[in-house]
Write a structure and sequence with these properties.
By secondary structure, the protein is mainly β. It has one domain: RNA polymerase II/Efflux pump adaptor protein, barrel-sandwich hybrid domain (OB fold (Dihydrolipoamide Acetyltransferase, E2P)), CATH 2.40.50. It has one helix spanning 41-47, and strands at residues 7-19, 22-29, 33-40, 54-59. It has a four-stranded antiparallel sheet. The relative contact order is 0.32.
Length: 69
């Protein structure tokens, strides 16, 4: 499969939280970094994601984030 994004990280699913039709998937990437993804439960089931799975995170930034340091 081809991706339109060049930013790809390998990670491990650490937590899946389901709430209504949506869910949150928490991922450990690199040494001490964490990411989360929000998707529909239908997408989660289609991907077959569960805690402990090794996955590839493909990032294509289309938003501007504000960070307070």
């Amino acid at each position: 499969m081809k991706y339109g994004a060049r930013n790809q990280l390998i990670g491990k699913v650490t937590k899946v939280v389901k709430d209504g039709i949506m869910c949150q998937v928490d991922i450990d990437v690199l040494d001490k970094s964490k990411m989360s993804s929000v998707m529909t439960k239908e997408s989660l089931e289609s991907l077959g994601l569960k805690k402990g799975d090794k996955i590839k995170v493909v990032v294509k930034a289309v938003n501007v984030l504000i960070v307070k340091e």
